[in-house]
From TrEMBL:
Its EC number is 2.6.1.42. GO terms for cellular component: mitochondrion. InterPro entries: Aminotrans_IV (IPR001544), Aminotrans_IV_CS (IPR018300), Aminotransferase-like (IPR036038), B_amino_transII (IPR005786), BCAT-like_C (IPR043132), BCAT-like_N (IPR043131), BCAT_family (IPR033939). GO terms for biological process: amino acid biosynthetic process; branched-chain amino acid biosynthetic process. Its cofactor is pyridoxal 5'-phosphate. The lineage of its organism: Eukaryota, Fungi, Fungi incertae sedis, Zoopagomycota, Kickxellomycotina. CDD domains: BCAT_beta_family. It is an enzyme of class 2 (transferase). It catalyses: L-leucine + 2-oxoglutarate = 4-methyl-2-oxopentanoate + L-glutamate; L-valine + 2-oxoglutarate = 3-methyl-2-oxobutanoate + L-glutamate; L-isoleucine + 2-oxoglutarate = (S)-3-methyl-2-oxopentanoate + L-glutamate. This is Branched-chain-amino-acid aminotransferase. The modification N6-(pyridoxal phosphate)lysine is found at K230. The keyword Transferase applies.
Length: 399
């Protein structure tokens, strides 16, 4: 039976001291910050041109400017500045190079049919970033001030945002350790920066279903580890394994954990399963935030949206590969998909597991469809919110 969980307010629960249960504690604990009122802007002399939007690949092109703020333990944050895009100059002994002391975020800005630019839940990304920085002893900052500074960067680069459904300006806020010492300890200097990338759809082939390889030998994260933070070190371990999965004809790894092969994440995405559970209830289930799962902003948006619909049970719990395989055989498995900022939704059509392939239904009414009805509906509604077709509190219009 799939487990059911009602998550308590983490900061009032018995687990309030656990770093992965109390994001709010980190957001209120910063000692100093950089401030928007101190922001300076230096513009490029000659703006660059970009490839035609149908030639834009995700994360391949970058805008004219970047935001940066330096920090030292002795003096705190320096004044933030927007400057022409440039290569970083750091000491060869910097902690980011030797001990992977860094974290990052991924957010997007969109240009709607009305020509207005909208940011989608950037505040949520920056709250999560504060949690990540604290987890590796990098400096935190005031979330609202960071959002204001990044917003000014996006305003400056608004002409670089391609118009049209599926196109956006990808934002990559990053914090890296820069202390020039080979020492495994808290770093005394760091750099916060944000770069922007005009991009097209995450998958060049379009909105198409993928095949996942359920890895029973390796794990992405473990209890008490760092899997719930957006650290580069949580991604590098999957590079070679994903390459092996690609050679077998699968696009991504479906990460499992424990003897029961509990489903955790799908590649670099949160995993969702839409099924009729063993109690006969129509349910959308995603792994609960137990410290091994990244608290995705898209994940949270999907849960909130589907709960508001009130058409099926929405659960943060656990489900094993055995349960999923049994549901598929019995016709109770309706859809599987991944979700994240880059792809929004990635439908799944097949899962390789223990030497066999588990088929995942797509649209029973359209044999040519590359997604199931629910994942398509979620995708279209989220995109409509992001582009301003549906007014929503999650979007901020930049004047």
């Amino acid at each position: 039976m799939a487990s059911r969980f009602i998550l308590r307010n983490p900061c009032t629960s018995s687990l309030k001291n656990s770093r992965y249960f109390c994001v709010a504690a980190f957001n209120a604990s910063y000692k100093d910050s950089f401030y928007h009122k101190d922001l300076s802007i230096t513009k490029v002399d000659t703006p660059k041109s970009y490839p035609p939007k149908d030639q834009l690949l995700f994360g391949h092109n970058f805008t004219d400017h970047m935001l940066e703020a330096k920090w030292t333990k002795e003096n705190g944050w320096e004044k933030p500045k927007i400057v022409p895009f440039h290569n970083l100059t750091i000491h060869p002994a910097s902690g980011v190079l030797h001990y992977a002391i860094e974290c990052f975020e991924g957010a997007k800005a969109y240009k709607g049919k009305d020509g207005k630019v909208r940011m989608f839940r950037l505040d949520a990304n920056m709250r999560r970033m504060n949690k990540s920085t604290a987890s590796i002893s990098l400096p935190t900052f005031d979330v609202e001030e960071a959002v204001k500074c990044i917003t000014d960067l996006v305003k400056l680069e608004s002409n670089a945002i391609p118009e049209g459904f599926g196109y956006s300006l990808y934002l990559r806020p990053t914090v890296i350790a820069t202390e020039p010492k080979l020492s495994i300890r808290e770093n005394s200097s760091a750099l916060f920066y944000t770069i922007c990338s005009p991009c097209g759809p995450y998958f060049p082939t379009g909105f198409k279903a993928v095949r996942l390889f359920a890895d029973t030998e390796h794990v992405r994260a473990w209890p008490g580890g760092t899997g719930d933070n957006k650290l580069g070190s949580n991604y590098d371990g999957g590079m070679y394994l994903t390459k092996l999965a690609n050679q077998k004809g699968y696009q991504q790894i479906l990460w499992l954990f424990g003897e029961e092969h509990n489903i955790t994440e799908a590649g670099s995405m949160n995993a969702f399963i839409y099924w009729t559970n063993e109690e006969g209830v129509l349910e959308l289930i995603t792994p609960r935030l137990d410290g091994t799962i990244l608290p995705g902003v898209t994940r949270d948006s999907i849960l909130s949206m589907c709960r508001k619909w009130g058409e099926f049970q929405v659960t943060e719990g656990s489900i094993t590969m055995k349960q999923l395989a049994k549901a598929s055989k019995e016709g109770r498995l309706h859809e599987v998909f991944g979700a994240g900022t880059g792809c929004i939704i990635s439908p799944v059509k097949e899962i390789g597991y223990l030497g066999s392939n588990i088929p995942v239904p797509l649209d029973p009414n359209d044999p040519t469809s590359e997604s199931g009805p629910l994942s398509r509906r979620i995708y279209e509604e989220l995109m409509a919110i992001q582009y301003g077709d549906i007014p929503h509190e999650w979007t901020t219009i930049l004047e």
